[in-house]
Write a structure and sequence with these properties.
With 281 residues, the protein is α/β, with parallel strands linked by helices. It contains nine helices and ten strands. β9 and β10 form a beta hairpin. α3 packs across α4 and α5 runs parallel beside α6. The N terminus is likely disordered.
Length: 281
Amino acid sequence: MSEVLGPQQRGMTIPSQAITSSFPLDSPSAVLGAPKVQVSHLAKAYGDNLVLRDVSLEVPSGSVTAMIGPSGAGKSTLLRCMNLLERPDAGTIQIGEHLIDVAKGIAPKNLAALRRSTGMVFQTFNLFPHMTVLRNISLPQQRVLGRSSSEADEISHRLLSRMGLHDKAGQYPNRCSGGQQQRIAIARALALDPEVMLFDEPTSALDPEVGAEVLDVMKELASEGMTMVVVTHEMSFAANVSDQLVVMAEGRIIERGDPKDIMRNPQHERTRKFLHAVMER
C-alpha cells in the first residue's frame, strides 16, 4: 500500500488519470492519525428517496478528506449530516469528544456542542447583507462563544488580515467580489475555533481565477494541520492536497483511499466513468 501523504508532503503534482481504494472500505485510516470524525452506518431518506445508504467514514485528525462523485451521489447530504444541518434517520456521528447516536435522540446541548466543533462553508456565502464584513465575523463569536465585542473584533481583524482582506472590515458584503465573500465566510467559520472545517463545493459559484484564491486559503489551512472535509469538483485539489479521497455514488462510498492510487487506478467502474467525464471537460 502506498504511504498516505501528510500535510508537509502536499503539493506534489500527480498525473490526472483515473481512481481506487488502496485498502478495503472498512479498513482504518490510522496511518494518518487518530480519527477526528467518525460516521457510522449513516442513513438518510427524503420520502422514498434514500440519499445515504449505510455510510461509514473516518476522517483522521489533521488530515484533508476530499469527496468526489456525480451529482446526486449524496456528498453534500453527508456533509450536512456531519454537523446535523440535516438530521440522519440512523447511525452515529462523532466529532472529537462529541457523540450523537440518532437512535437515542439528539439532546439540544449535544447538538449545540457538535455544531460548535464544526465550521461550515457553503457554495453560497450566506453573509448578512445589512451588516459590515467585520460584524458578520464578530457577531457569531459573541452569540456562540460569549466573547466581548472588543475581543471578537480583534479576532475578526486578525482573520481578515490573514485572508488579505483587512481593508474590507467596514464595507458591506455586496461591495466585495465573490471570492472575497467566500474568504470572509471562511474567516467567520474559523473565528469560532472549530475542530473540523467542512466545505461544500466552496468554489462552484466562482470563476476559475477567483476560485483559485479560495483554494489557496484552503491549502494554507491544510498545511497548518486543520482537519477538513471538502466536497469538490476541483480534481487538482483532490489529488494534490487531500490525504484521503472518497468517491460516492448512489448514496454509498464506492472507493476510499490514497488520492494517487485512486486517481491512477480506479477499481470501480462508476469511478472510472466519473473520472473520465471530469478529465475530458
